[in-house]
Amino acid sequence: MDRPSYSPLPWQARAELFSHLAMAEKAGLPAQQAYAMLQLTGQAGQRAALMQRLIKRGTPPMHAAARAGLFDSVEQRILRAAHDGGQLETVYAQLADDYALRARTARQLRGRLLPILFVFAAALFIAPLPQLVHGQLTAAGYLGQALRPLVLAVLLVWLGFWLPHWLAQDGDGPVRAHLQAWQLDLPVLGAMQRRRAARDYTAALGLALDAGVPMFDALPLAASVLANPLLRDDVERMQPTVEAGLPLSSAAAGLRYFDTPRLVGMIQTGEASGMLSTMLLKFAADESDNVAADARFLADWMPRLAYALVSGWMIWSLVGGR
Fold first, then answer.
1. What is residue 3's DSSP assignment?
2. Distance between CA 160 and CA 223 in Å, rounded?
3. Does the reported pTM lie above 0.70?
4. Distance (Å, rounded) from C-alpha 48 to C-alpha 14?
5. Please, are residues 92 and 25 in contact by the beta-carbon 8 Å criterion?
6. How far apart are CA 288 and CA 87, in angstroms?
7. Which residues contact 275 (CB under 8 A, 6 or more apart)?
8. 186 — alpha (psi -120 to 50), left (phi > 0) or beta?
9. How far apart are CA 90 and CA 82, in angstroms?
10. ∠ at Cα 286 (232, 77), nearest 5°?
11. 14 Cβ partners below 8 Å, 6+ apart?
12. Per-residue pLDDT of the chain (322 residues; tens, 9 = 90+)
């Protein structure tokens, strides 16, 4: 599938997109009909209209959706793996749930951070007001002193929402590589990134094996769903070990970024019982639950941290006589 040149769709639009596709797949609708029936609004609706025109010209539906920018590069690889494994309904539903969770978390964060930003803005304009009244500041100086920290705070909030989108896309360069490595080491956020990657990888591998794809082919297929090159390189190191005749559990023991002891234990159980794909999918489901718990923690504690920072700044400003 071609790599789209579009920016990723909002979380909610992607949740609605994959929810529709999951229901259509469950109902047994042909792919061409399912994609042609998409009813989206705004930016997503414009891309859906382009996709439908491409389908009418004979472009395969999934290929048309990718060309129209409805799928990003990571989603294309995940869906390719699901298609090859015959598990599109499962993956559509998983993507819909994941994006619905992200959209809900983002709404909660925005709703809780906006009042804090308002209080911060009010404090910025109130603090230098005595200096303006006593003629120690000009009007331009007053506005500059009040607006500079506010603009910086808004930019930081925007960057916090935009940067994860950007890092999740394909691309090269030292800046991106350093940021992707730094992202994995962040408290809470790094753990969420690693758990989400572990979920995507083990789900893709489990689905491929469940569909009868040979292990040697399933491993690179599953690795392709990871956008972060550090994570992808980590799992790709398992391939030579497996090709040398060792079990998957031995190869997985060297993974650096996943919950390796638990993953190895579940793989060993699957190998011993002949249910390897089932155990991989169970691990993926457990990681989905962990990601959801992390998202709830983030939505609860980020606003509290922001309140603490704003309160600390206000106290420092009063004590410092600003």
1. P
2. 27
3. no
4. 12
5. yes
6. 18
7. 269
8. beta
9. 8
10. 35
11. 8, 95, 99
12. 444 457 778 889 999 999 999 999 999 999 888 998 888 888 888 899 999 999 999 999 999 998 999 988 778 878 887 887 777 888 899 889 888 888 888 888 788 878 887 887 887 888 778 888 888 888 888 888 888 887 887 787 777 667 666 666 656 667 776 777 777 887 777 888 888 889 889 988 988 888 788 899 889 988 988 878 889 899 999 999 999 999 999 999 999 988 889 999 999 999 999 999 999 989 988 988 888 888 888 778 878 888 888 788 777 776 765 4
Given phi > 0 = left and psi -120 to 50 = alpha, else beta, which region is 86?
A: left
Residue type, 319: V
Tokens encoding 257: 């970024």
Using DSSP, state whether 136 is helix, strand or coil. Answer: coil
DSSP 135: T
Angle in degrees, CA 12, 18, 19, rounded to 5: 85
The answer to whether residues 266 and 282 touch, using CB atoms and an 8 Å cutoff, is: yes
Structure tokens at 130: 């005595």
| Structure tokens belonging to residue 244 | 């040398």
Of the candidates 205, 192, 195, 197, the one whose C-alpha atom is nearest the C-alpha of residue 279 is 205
DSSP 56-98: HTT--HHHHHHHTTSS-HHHHHHHHHHHHHT-HHHHHHHHHHH
- Count of Cβ atoms closer than 10 Å to residue 74 Cβ: 18
Distance CA 111, CA 130 (A): 32
User: Length of the chain in residues, anyone?
Assistant: 322
Token code pair at residue 7: 């920016």
Query: Is the CA virtual torsion 19, 24, 25, 31 positive or negative?
Result: negative
Question: Closest by alpha carbon to 72, among 160, 168, 162, 158?
Answer: 168
Q: Identity (one letter) of the amino acid at 298?
A: L
